Each structure stands twice: as C-alpha cells, then as structure tokens.
C-alpha cells in the first residue's frame, strides 16, 4: 500500500478585478459636463437678491464651497456681495473698497470658478495671473488661494523676488495659477524658455495704483504686451480712481465699477457730486483716529514713552525710510522696553522679510513692528490695536493705507499720527479734501522721559549705531526733500542740529542737497527784499534818479547782495577794522593806478637790458608766458639762440661741448705711437676685466647647479618615503591603458640637470632568465617614478 506524501496547501484562486461597465467613464464625463454647463448657465443668469449674504447662495462649484467652509469663510462682505455676481459672468471689474473689506476673496473666487467651468487642466498652461505690488502681499494672497482652493486640482505657484530663479523656472511651465510681483514676472517672461501666457483667461491687478506709484509703470506696460487681449481683467484697490486714462492704461474693456456705497453714487450728469464722491476715501467704521503735535527732536522720546505705556498692545509703527527703521529698531532693542520688537523694510533679504512677516502675523500677544510703507498695502496683520505714524504720510492715500492695517473685518482699532507744527495745517487740509477727519490730542508732557542721553551713550560706545544714526538722519531729510507737497514739507526749515542731537550724533552731517536748498531760499529772500525796496521807492514818488552826493554815500553792492550768497572774501572785507585792506581791495576792483605807492604794493623795476627786447605797447596787456614765448620765437627766426658756456681754471669761457684740436691732443700724448700704445694698454685692461668676470660667472653658475641638484635629491627622498602611493602606482603600471601622466610627460623648464636627464636615451632592457616577480616590478616602477 502506497502511502501518500505530505499534503500541500492548495493555492487560492486569484480574485477577479472588478469589471467596470464600458460606458461608466463616458457617463461620468457626461455627468461632469452637465454639471459644468448647468453651473455656467446659472452664473450667467444669476440675479443677486437684495439680502445676498452667504457664499452658499452663489452659483459656484462644490469644491469652492467646501474650501470656503473649511477656511471659515461663510458670510460675504459688501464688496464681495457686489462684485462676485458680476465677475462670475466673465466681465471686467474695477473695484474700490476700504482696506480690510475682503478684496482678496473677491478676485480669487472668480479665478477658481472661471478655470473650473472652462475645464482647465495641467496641460493647458497658465490660466490665471495675479499681480501684487509687494512680496508680503503676494505671499498672503497665495496662502488664501491654497486655503480656499484645496479641493480643486489646479496647480498654483508663487513667483517673487529673492528666491532661486532656477527653481522657479523649472516649475513655471506646469502652473495653472500664478501669483507674482511685477519685476520677477517680467524677468521670467523675457528669459525663461517655454513660459508663455497666450492662453491666459483671467488677469488680476491687486493694488494697481500702488504698482504704478512704486515705479512699475513701464514694467506693467511690458507685462500687458505679453498677455492676450481676449481675457477677463479684475482690478481692486482701496484708493481707486475712475479716470478714463487709468482704465485705458490697464486695458480694461467696458469695466463694471464696483465700490462701497456704489448704490448711492450720484448720476453722471452731476459732475461736481461725482468728482467729490471719487475723491472721498472710505475708512473702517471701527477706527479711532487722532494726531498730536510733536517737534522733530522729540519724536523718538515720545515713541519710546508710548511703547513703555502700551506693553500689552500689538502695535505697528510706520517710519519714512528703511534706514530709520534699522536705527530705531537697533537702539530700542538696546534700551530694553520690555516688549518684543521687530522690523520690516524693503532692503531686507527675502528670507528675513518672510520670517518677520510670519512672526508678527502669528503673534497673539504684545509686539511692536517698525516698518516702512512696504507694510502699508493690503497686508492682514491680525489683532493690531495701534497704528503709529511717527513720520507723516506723503498724501491722503498713503494715510488711508497705513491706518487700514487695524480695524479690519468689523473689528476696532486706533491710529495715532505725529505731526510737526509746520506740517499740521497742510496735512489736515489734504486729509479734509478727501473726506478724512482726524481729532487732535495731547501727550502728557510731564511724564515723557527724554532718551537723548541714552542714544548718545549708545553712539559713543558703538560706532555702528553712530553710523546708523547718520544714515537715518540723511535718509529722513531726503524723504522730506522728495515729497511733492513742498508747502507742507519744508526741508529748509527743519531744526537739523536739534534733530541730529536727538539721534545721539555729535553734530549734524553735511548734506549737499540741503545746502543747495538753503542757498536757494536765501537767494529768493534777497530778491524779495530788493523787489520790496523798489516798490517802496516807486510809491514814494521818486523817479529812480539819484544825485551825485547820494551816489558818493551809497556803498558799492557786493557780490553777496547781487547773488544772495556770501563768500569768505565778503565776510573778510565786511569787518569793521579793515580800512587799509578794504581801501586797497576797492582800488583793485576799481582799476586804480598801479604806480601809486600804497601799502603792500610791490612795484616792479623795469631794468634796461641791451640783449633783451622790451615789450611794446601793443604787447603790454599780454601775459608773461605769452610774451616769453614770443621772444623765443623771434630769437629762433633771427638765428640767434643762447649758448651755454663753461669756464676753465684760467677764467676763459668755452662752449659746453667744444671740440679740442686733434693735432694738439696727439702731440700732448707722445705722437701717433704713444696714442697706439695707450689704446693697447686700455684694451688689455678691459680683456683682463672680462676674464675675471667670466670666472666669477662660472663659479656662480656652478653653485646654482649644485643647489638645484641638492633640492632635487631632497624631493626624490621625500617621494621615496610614500610607500602607499608607490604601491598604487605599481598596480596601475601593470595595466597599460595608454595614458601618460603629465608629471612624466612634461619636464620642468627651470632645471638644467632635469633637461639633460630627459635628453638621455632610455636604459636598455635587461635580460631576464626567468619570469618577473612582484619585487622586480616594484623596483622597475620606482626607477620609472624617479626618472632613472
């Protein structure tokens, strides 16, 4: 009976893959197409109700609704409720709304919806482009886009300056949505191969007026030339104007004007009312605005006092220049106010700017950020309670953007502006023309402690702080000098000495443009005084003619009175006890006779020389140099030039290179025979000198040769001590790959012995009676390496 072998487990049958219905994929495509077509019709036919307030009531895709809900965006703001029904239909929109009103969602939702309804895919290229004026604002827009578009399949990219250009270039061709700053975007359009925007569907210009103000006018024009004309354009800003030139420049086609209070806007026939409405700037309802009068040299003391008294607040401080931001941040950190301090300006590196922006945005407690106007546009810093403007803004629009960093999204905030006495009237008038009213307040002067002494100590101890203070001083005066409103910002009237002292500087640095401005104003004042004098004389009935007695009494007008600028010579001759010098100076100016013997007057005696031609009356007015050149030319033409003579021991004059009589010279040396003997003796002496020099030269050459040989021996001994390297060389020598090392190929051109060694023929091969061993190969390799 045969026994059965060991039992093996039977293999499980393979599970059959689920068989899809052949028409399932097609059915899904048709269903998606049907949903997109229905969404397209709903958006085109959508008529917003009066009580439209929820995003869920809009004709948008489910992916966008889910993204908005996940990001906690449920209720629309007025600008969103007004613009979204229009922009979803594919029309151009020109939106104007106050800061913090939600303009970012007003253009990002249409971007997602337009691309979704047109079935935009990865292979279709760039479909939407968002241009932002600053890097921080571009980063903020990109973060919001990722948040609300997380359920869409589009690829999005961020292109800003300060990042690796090559990394951006590699990913650029795969992007469907791009958020960029103007400069870097134009650089990619001009330099990146394969980056095209021929199929662009939507263009968004965020803070377009700021883009133009920052000097990107030509850049923006060049960008628009790269984009197709058949596109939808959305433009949003807090201070948007309705001029036809701006619209033509930004190439909008029949735009729909959307803005806060648009329903109450006046009709087109009422031009004055329309102009006033356009000029009026909208501000958040929860914003409390104040200003106080503060002299220039007390600003830093008042700022430090404010920070010390608001240690539990999140504060944003605006200064006019980046160098001021650096100086204030550095010095205040040394004085330890007891609150975290940060700074942000345009000259920082991109990594530092991004780190500061993120840190201040996420700060939930108290913090102070010193910044320039780079942080004044569009940035959303949550929880900012105070906005301080230590330096006055350039215009009303800049003021609105600065204070718009607080009181955002129906929250409350406070704004405080420091104004100098000379700026109060002009700045308040400029704000009033745009519908902005600011309340005056006062600081408790008795409690404000001056920080001038602390800043002086810091500048004395650290030269870096002194250097920063000098640069801050110059940059502030330059910013005031460049302001357009010269009636409000008067750089020549600033107390520069006291301002420099308040920065801790030992003295005010010299500034060229400020000196020119002061001189210009002095000149204008002199002209005004002269005009007043002329007007008074005309009013008194005088005909402008003066008597001889009055002319004698009237002083001669100086250069200072004519030009308005006093020189050091004017100051010298205007002194009281300068009678002698002033009379002499007056004679020189009046062309007095030079023969009069007067104080410190040197009279030249004209000596009568027979050989020197005297100047005629015609040449009396010529300069001495020209007269001397004329005499030399006349002497050359007459054939007579000066001769240089030498005198012998007897006092006889001879020419410098006078030839001696040959016969007398021969007779003085013993005749012809004596001359020949002297020549032979001279030649023999020279030959002896040459022999001695030859012996010395050969000895030196021999010593040099010995020294070279000694150094070569030392190098060979050092090379012989490297056993590991020689063993590797032997292993390589066993395989003949045809390569010759340059060390063996090119001898040195400086060593004569080495050249002679390489000139010798190679040694003959020795006969071998038996097979070569490893020792023989090593010895052969050593000889090859040593050049033997």
Automatic annotation (TrEMBL):
Low complexity compositional bias, start-end: 722-733
Chain segments carrying region Disordered: 1-32, 525-565, 609-628, 681-778
Organismal lineage: Eukaryota, Fungi, Dikarya, Basidiomycota, Agaricomycotina
GO cellular component: nucleolus
One GO BP annotation of this record: rRNA processing
Protein name in UniProt: ATP-dependent RNA helicase
Functional note: RNA helicase.
GO MF entries: ATP binding; hydrolase activity; RNA binding; RNA helicase activity
Keywords: ATP-binding, Helicase, Hydrolase, Nucleotide-binding, Ribosome biogenesis, RNA-binding, rRNA processing
InterPro entries xref list: DEAD/DEAH_box_helicase_dom, Helicase_ATP-bd, Helicase_C-like, P-loop_NTPase, RNA-helicase_DEAD-box_CS, RNA_helicase_DEAD_Q_motif, SPB4-like_CTE
Domain DEAD-box RNA helicase Q: from-to ranges: 53-81
Compositionally biased residues, Basic and acidic residues: 681-704
Organism of derivation: Mycena chlorophos
Entry domain remark: The Q motif is unique to and characteristic of the DEAD box family of RNA helicases and controls ATP binding and hydrolysis.
Domain (Helicase C-terminal): residue spans on this chain: 299-459
EC number(s) per entry: 3.6.4.13
Reactions it catalyzes: ATP + H2O = ADP + phosphate + H(+)
Compositionally biased residues, Acidic residues: 529-553
């Amino acid at each position: 009976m045969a026994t059965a072998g060991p039992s093996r487990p039977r293999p499980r049958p393979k599970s059959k893959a689920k068989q899809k219905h052949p028409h399932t994929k097609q059915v899904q495509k048709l269903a998606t197409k049907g949903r997109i077509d229905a969404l397209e019709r709903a958006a085109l036919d959508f008529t917003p109700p009066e009580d439209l307030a929820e995003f869920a009531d809009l004709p948008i895709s489910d992916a966008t609704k889910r993204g908005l809900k996940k990001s906690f965006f449920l209720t629309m703001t007025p600008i969103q409720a007004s613009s979204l029904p229009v922009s979803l239909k594919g029309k151009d929109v020109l939106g104007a709304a106050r800061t913090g009103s939600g303009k970012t969602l007003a253009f990002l939702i249409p971007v997602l919806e337009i691309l979704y309804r047109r079935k935009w895919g990865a292979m279709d290229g760039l479909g939407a482009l968002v241009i932002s004026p600053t890097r921080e604002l571009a980063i903020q827009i990109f973060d919001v886009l990722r948040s609300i578009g997380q359920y869409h399949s589009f690829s999005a990219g961020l292109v800003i300056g300060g990042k690796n250009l090559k990394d951006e270039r590699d990913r650029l061709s795969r992007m469907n949505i791009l958020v960029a700053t103007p400069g870097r975007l134009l650089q990619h359009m001009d330099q990146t191969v394969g980056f095209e925007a021929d199929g662009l569907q939507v263009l968004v210009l965020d803070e377009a007026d700021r883009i133009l103000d920052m000097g990107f006018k030509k850049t923006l024009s060049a960008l628009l030339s790269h984009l197709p004309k058949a596109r939808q354009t959305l433009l949003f800003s807090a201070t948007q104007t309705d001029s036809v030139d701006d619209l033509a420049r930004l190439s909008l086609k029949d735009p729909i004007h959307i803005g806060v209070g648009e329903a109450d806007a006046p009709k087109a026939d009422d031009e004055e009312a329309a102009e006033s409405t356009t000029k009026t700037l909208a501000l958040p309802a929860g914003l409390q605005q104040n200003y106080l009068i503060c002299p220039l040299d007390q600003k830093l003391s008042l700022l430090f006092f404010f920070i010390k008294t608001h240690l539990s607040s999140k504060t944003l401080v605006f200064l006019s220049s980046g160098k001021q931001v650096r100086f204030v941040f550095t010095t205040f950190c040394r004085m330890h106010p007891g609150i975290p301090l940060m700074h942000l300006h345009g000259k920082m590196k991109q990594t530092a700017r991004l780190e500061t922006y993120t840190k201040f945005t996420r700060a939930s407690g108290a913090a102070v950020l010193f910044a320039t106007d780079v942080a004044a546009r569009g940035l959303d810093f949550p929880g900012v309670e105070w906005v301080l403007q230590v330096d006055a803004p350039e215009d009303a629009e800049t003021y609105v953007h600065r204070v718009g960093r607080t009181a955002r999204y129906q929250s409350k905030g406070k704004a405080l502006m420091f104004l100098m006495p000379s700026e109060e009237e002009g700045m308040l008038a400029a704000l009033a023309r745009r519908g902005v009213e600011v309340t005056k307040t006062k600081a408790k002067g008795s409690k404000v402690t001056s920080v001038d002494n602390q800043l002086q100590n810091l500048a004395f101890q650290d030269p870096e702080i002194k250097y920063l203070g000098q640069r801050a001083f110059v940059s502030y005066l330059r910013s005031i000098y460049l302001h357009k409103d010269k009636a409000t910002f008067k750089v020549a009237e600033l107390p520069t000495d006291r301002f420099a002292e308040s920065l801790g500087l030992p003295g005010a640095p010299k500034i060229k443009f400020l000196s020119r401005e002061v001189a210009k104003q002095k000149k204008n004042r002199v002209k005004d005084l002269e005009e007043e004098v002329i007007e008074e004389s005309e009013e008194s009935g005088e005909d402008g003619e003066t008597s001889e007695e009055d002319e004698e009494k009237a002083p001669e007008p100086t250069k200072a009175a004519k030009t308005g600028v006093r020189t050091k010579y004017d100051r010298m001759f205007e002194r009281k006890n300068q009678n002698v010098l002033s009379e002499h100076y007056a004679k020189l100016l009046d062309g007095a006779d030079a023969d009069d013997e007067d104080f410190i007057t040197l009279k030249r005696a004209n000596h009568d020389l027979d050989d020197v031609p005297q100047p005629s009356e015609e040449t009396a007015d010529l300069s001495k140099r020209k007269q001397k050149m004329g005499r030399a030319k006349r002497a050359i033409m007459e054939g007579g030039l000066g001769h240089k003579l030498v005198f012998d021991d007897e006092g006889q004059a001879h020419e410098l290179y006078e030839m001696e009589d040959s016969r007398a010279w021969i007779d003085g040396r013993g005749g012809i025979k004596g001359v020949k003997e002297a020549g032979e003796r001279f030649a023999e002496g020279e030959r002896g000198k040459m022999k001695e020099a030859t012996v010395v030269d050969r000895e030196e050459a021999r010593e040099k040769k010995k020294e070279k040989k000694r150094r070569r021996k030392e190098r060979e001994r050092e090379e012989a001590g490297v056993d590991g390297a020689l063993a590797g060389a032997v292993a390589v020598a066993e395989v003949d790959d045809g390569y010759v090392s340059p060390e063996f190929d090119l001898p040195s051109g400086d060593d004569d012995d080495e050249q002679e060694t390489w000139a010798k023929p190679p040694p003959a091969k020795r006969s071998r009676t038996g097979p070569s061993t490893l020792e023989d190969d090593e010895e052969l390799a050593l000889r090859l390496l040593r050049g033997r």
